[in-house]
């Protein structure tokens, strides 16, 4: 096998080129290749200076993540970086694109660093539950001081080439071709007679309590249960307190301890899922249709959000409303959204973006658009009316999409003469902010329409998950069940506030009742009303929640719900207690611990998710994990509910479910897929692998 690392000599300059597509990850062959290239350079009498280059778009994409969790193979990356640093002649890292994680550490192992404008230097390790493990935390503060290292490493952040020059991370900034510029720079260094300059030999600024205290306070608040950001701070502290060689050992110890954590496993699971989720076998080789313009029907919060998302992606939007006044209101909402995007730094200029928005009251204006997304009132007859009109005006080959969050998309498609062109695009509110897009695909939809929806999601910078047709699709169907578990726990003795606290302690940003207050308790009430005609007599109704609705306690917007509000700050609303007591009647009461609450909540989530996968609504367990991560605030460091379930053991979870089913057989019906996996001794991860 040829090495991914080439060694060439031009005159007195050795050029070491790493070519390991797609991202120049530092897998075993690259590490060995770099090691050998440095040996060769050391022994090469002709070469007086060496340049390390990365071929392709990146300098180096970091450690090879697919090797994590497997037995490590020598040479290890820290040793490779030290080997570069210990070279007997000067080595330059010439960085033209992203130098990430281990890639940045290789650059720090070199004696001189040149960057081409457009390059980036970053330490994303905490996003994988790790910290720099190849000397980054020890070398960077020696070049830049502690401040920039504490800004970057706990945050998983990066700096541009210009910023890197400012903070002293690099020595030289150039423009143009990296190979040419590196040769010029190398010749200049030779002419100046420079020698090796080992970062590890430089002094590190002394420990500064204020800087570390401030960083720890910030990250204790921000990390919300994640261990890596605080560990990154510990590693930088080690640089300030220990001699270099010992600091390197301490960094390694911290890195390896994180490698063993479930958080690392969860975040790497999430990293690969982000990439697998849009790879569907049925779409392989299917070309999407071109989308150059979009129509949006309905300019309420959802429609305006969708229009904003499309405008932010540079797509011209025609928005249809029923009258001029509503159209103006929609325009005002979109203008507000764009102004906020400018404030958040997501957009340069709202005014020029708004020139791409047309608001109309006549469907005829949609005759030319490539895609229309309906976001009107959630009522089947209203949707039928809209789709009949769309069918009449839209050009052949256009895509007709509905943003319904639960209605039967197959039935909506049947209102048109072209069901193959109809698909569900379920955005989450606010649509221009939330990352998740559920692509709801009825059996009648043409594959290229599904491919078009995935291509659109990419353009809108959304994470798209394919879902089948059922009430609530993947996310809201699972949500309805774990919300149901929370209501049942209230009847069984837990208070809404205990439940919220336990769920937050698990890592979600909000508990279900706080969430209800934020969204408006009228939404839950309306959903219950809608489902009432089909409700199974064995199901329970949260009568206290109905009473709260009738009292006009709709949550934040009315100043009270499960909490009473002063501004956004809520305190438990004691007035809810008697309503709950009444609903409990003489039911036996349990003394719930936070762990018991978490267990039931999560078991309900996983059990319903297993039904969703078993029925083919989600293609794979990983689609559920991605949905919950991007649409429902599930903590990334836990990987997703299915990954969590694998980690606690499916058999134990099933046993619990069967146990609870003795009291409540209707709610705790084990998912057939869960029973099957336990019987076969398999996991959700095995199912993901099988579908790869
Ligand atoms: N190790 C192994 N594989 C990696 C990798 C790494 N460090 N970085 C990316 N890949 C793989 C991806 O899984 C993907 O594989 P696939 O095509 O089989 O799905 C492929 O490389 C392309 O990556 P993708 O993310 O789709 O490309 P991109 O151009 O959008 O982004 C990066 C490139 C490097 C910015 C992005 O992949 C990234 O952030 N990678 C992680 C970098 C990192 O954290 N490094 C530190 C490790 S400690």
Highest-level CATH class of the largest domain? Alpha Beta
Which ligands accompany this protein?
A: coenzyme A
CATH architectural category of the largest domain: Alpha-Beta Complex
- Average residue pLDDT: 96
Residues in helix, %: 40-55%
Q: What's the N-to-C terminus distance?
A: 26 Å
The global form is globular
Whole-number count of domains: 3
Percentage of residues in strands: 5-15%
Q: What order do the strands of the largest sheet run in, or round the barrel if closed? A: 14-13-12-15-16-17-18-19
Instruction: Report the radius of gyration as a whole number of Å.
Output: 28 Å
The CATH superfamily of the largest domain is 2-enoyl-CoA Hydratase, Chain A, domain 1
Please characterize this protein's 3D structure.
With 692 residues, this protein is an alpha/beta fold. It has three domains: 5-260, 2-enoyl-CoA Hydratase, Chain A, domain 1, CATH 3.90.226; 291-467, Rossmann fold; 495-589, N-(1-d-carboxylethyl)-l-norvaline Dehydrogenase, domain 2 (Orthogonal Bundle), CATH 1.10.1040. Strand 18, helix 17 and strand 19 form a beta-alpha-beta unit. The model has no long low-confidence stretch (mean pLDDT 96). The protein binds coenzyme A. The site of coenzyme A (COA) has 19 residues, from strand 5 and strand 7.
């Amino acid at each position: 096998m040829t090495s991914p690392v080439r060694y060439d000599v031009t005159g007195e300059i050795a050029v070491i080129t790493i070519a390991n597509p797609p991202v120049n990850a530092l897998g075993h062959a690259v590490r060995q290749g770099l090691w050998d290239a440095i040996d060769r350079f050391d022994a090469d009498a002709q070469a007086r200076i060496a340049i390390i280059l990365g071929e392709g778009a990146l300098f180096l994409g970091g450690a090879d993540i697919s090797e994590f969790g497997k037995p490590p193979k020598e040479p290890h990356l820290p040793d490779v970086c030290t080997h570069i640093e210990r070279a007997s002649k000067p080595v330059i890292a010439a960085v033209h694109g992203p130098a990430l994680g281990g890639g940045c550490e290789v650059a720090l192992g070199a004696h001189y660093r040149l960057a081409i404008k457009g390059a980036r230097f970053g330490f994303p390790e905490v996003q994988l539950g790790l910290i720099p493990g190849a000397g980054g935390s020890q070398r960077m503060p020696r070049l830049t001081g502690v401040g920039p290292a504490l800004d970057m490493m706990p945050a998983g952040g990066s700096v541009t080439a210009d910023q890197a020059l400012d903070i002293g991370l690099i020595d030289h900034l150039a423009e143009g071709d990296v190979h040419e510029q590196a040769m010029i720079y190398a010749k200049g260094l030779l002419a100046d007679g420079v020698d090796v300059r080992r970062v590890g030999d430089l002094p590190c600024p002394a420990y500064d309590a204020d800087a570390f205290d401030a960083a720890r306070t910030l990250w204790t608040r921000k990390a919300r249960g994640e261990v890596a950001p605080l560990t990154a701070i510990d590693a930088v502290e080690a640089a300030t307190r220990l001699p270099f060689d010992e600091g390197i050992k301490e960094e390694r110890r911290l890195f390896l301890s994180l490698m063993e954590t479930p958080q690392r496993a969860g975040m790497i699971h999430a990293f690969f899922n982000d990439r697998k989720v849009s790879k569907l076998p049925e779409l392989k080789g299917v070309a999407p249709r071109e989308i150059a313009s979009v129509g949006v029907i309905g300019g309420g919060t959802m429609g305006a959000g969708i229009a904003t998302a499309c405008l932010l992606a540079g797509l011209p939007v025609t928005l249809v409303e029923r009258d001029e006044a509503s159209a103006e209101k929609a325009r005002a909402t979109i203008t507000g959204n764009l102004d906020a995007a400018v404030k958040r730094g997501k957009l340069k200029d709202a005014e020029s973006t708004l020139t791409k928005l047309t608001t109309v009251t006549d469907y005829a204006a949609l005759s030319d658009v490539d895609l229309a997304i309906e976001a009107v009132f959630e009522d089947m007859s209203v949707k039928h009316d809209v789709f009949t009109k769309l069918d009449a005006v839209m050009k052949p080959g256009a895509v007709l999409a509905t943003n319904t969050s639960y209605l039967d998309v197959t039935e909506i498609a049947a209102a048109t003469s072209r069901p193959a062109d109809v698909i569900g695009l379920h955005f989450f509110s606010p649509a221009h902010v939330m990352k998740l897009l559920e692509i709801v695909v009825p059996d009648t939809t043409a594959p290229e329409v599904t491919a078009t929806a995935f291509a659109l999601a990419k353009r809108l910078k959304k994470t798209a998950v394919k879902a089948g047709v059922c009430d609530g699709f993947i996310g809201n169907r699972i949500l309805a069940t774990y919300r149901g578990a929370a209501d049942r726990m209230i009847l069984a003795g837990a208070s809404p506030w205990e439940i919220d606290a336990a769920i937050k302690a698990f890592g979600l940003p909000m508990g279900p009742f706080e969430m209800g207050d934020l969204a408006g308790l009228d939404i839950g009430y309306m959903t219950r009303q809608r489902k009432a005609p089909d409700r199974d007599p064995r199901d329970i109704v949260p009568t206290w929640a109905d009473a709260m609705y009738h009292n006009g306690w709709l949550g934040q917007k009315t100043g009270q719900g499960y909490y009473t509000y002063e501004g956004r700050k809520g305190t438990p609303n004691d007035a809810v207690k008697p309503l709950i007591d009444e609903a409990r009647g003489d039911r036996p009461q349990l003394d719930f611990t936070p762990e018991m609450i978490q267990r039931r909540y999560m078991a309900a989530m996983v059990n319903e998710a297993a039904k969703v996968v078993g029925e083919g609504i989600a293609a794979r367990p990983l689609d559920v994990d991605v949905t919950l991560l991007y649409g429902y605030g599930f903590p990334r460091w836990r990987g997703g509910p299915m990954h969590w379930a694998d980690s606690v053991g499916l058999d134990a979870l099933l046993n619990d479910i069967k146990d609870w089913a003795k009291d409540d057989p209707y709610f705790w019906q084990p998912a057939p897929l869960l029973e099957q996996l336990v019987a076969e001794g398999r996991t959700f991860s095995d199912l993901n692998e099988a579908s790869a």
